[in-house]
Specification:
- By secondary structure, the protein is an alpha+beta fold.
- Among the domains are: 1-39, no CATH class; 140-253, no CATH class.
- The chain is built from nine helices and ten strands.
- It has helices at 2-5, 7-16, 24-33, 45-56, 83-92, 141-157, 171-181, 192-195, 227-239, and strands at 68-69, 72-73, 98-104, 128-135, 164-167, 201-202, 218-219, 222-225, 245-247, 250-252.
- The strands form five sheets. The chain has a two-stranded antiparallel sheet with strand order 1-2. A two-stranded antiparallel sheet has the order 3-4. The chain has a two-stranded parallel ribbon with strand order 5-8.
- Mean pLDDT is 77; it is low at 113-119.
Length: 253
């Protein structure tokens, strides 16, 4: 985008999409680090050797659905040095039709205060791409929950506290959320409260909410439906002539 559209267009889009694009200075610093500097008539054979060594070190191919162990995708699932084996895999193994992305949105101290102010550029948190891999629609709720617990435990080892997870409104994600929060559903052989009793945080709900808003007072992490998907569903129901919406006992007309 920066190369094709120019610095002015890039900066305009970056300002209107906070946190989505790095600053121009960050791009320039990145270009310096990956050694994009070239001189006329200079053949970069040394850089070519390093580049090929990086590619040939694993001989791993993407595009397939990675293997999973207890719901956790395994890296370098498809490695081969044989072209015939690679061709056979392309003909017999299912290719991924979707991509699963795990993004981390940090919570800054300035964003957790009760004072309502316009956030400055320095106070905006920058999302971080934790992982991405191909997938299909065959994963189930328990696999999703295992991935959430895996991410939580690995982050804890690095002194990072996961507050919650947000996902779309697909049924398997909603079921994983219900199992996590024990919202009219419970895991038969796993009790997160007992296993992680030292890591729980307490939630103090307003007294008036407790008659209609169900949320366990102690949680390991919270779960939310993605705001964009949720807003679309609410919009469709508000425009529907047949659906009825309630907030507590109050009808939404």
């Amino acid at each position: 985008l920066y190369v094709l559209a120019g610095s002015n267009t890039y900066e305009l889009i970056r300002i209107n999409l906070p946190g989505a694009l790095p600053s121009i200075s960050a791009l320039e610093h990145y270009n310096k680090n990956i050694d994009l500097k070239m001189n006329e008539c200079h053949f970069r054979f040394d850089r070519l050797t390093e580049h090929l060594d990086t590619i040939n070190s694993k001989n791993s191919f993407v595009g397939f659905i990675p293997s999973h162990h207890k719901g956790i995708p395994q890296t370098s699932s498809y490695q081969t040095d044989d072209f015939q084996q690679l061709q056979e895999r392309f003909m017999t193994i299912d290719k991924s039709s979707l991509i699963n992305v795990h993004m981390v949105e940090p919570l800054l101290p300035s964003l957790t205060t009760t004072t309502v102010t316009m956030p400055t550029q320095s106070s905006k948190s920058r999302p971080f791409l934790l992982a991405a891999y191909g997938t299909d629609t065959k994963s189930i709720a328990i696999d999703i929950l295992r991935r959430w617990i895996y991410i939580y435990e690995r982050c804890k080892l690095n002194d990072i506290r996961i507050i919650g997870y947000s996902a779309d409104c697909a049924g398997k994600y909603l079921k994983a959320m219900r199992l996590t929060n024990e919202s009219f559903s419970r895991l038969p052989n796993i009790n997160l409260i007992d296993i992680y009793h030292n890591d729980l945080f307490e939630i103090d709900l307003p007294h008036k909410w407790k008659t209609w808003f169900y949320l366990r007072p102690k949680q390991l992490f919270l779960c939310f439906q993605d705001g964009i998907h949720l807003a679309k569903k609410i919009r469709n129901r508000l425009l529907s002539k047949h659906a009825q919406l309630f907030i507590g006992k109050q009808s939404v007309d």
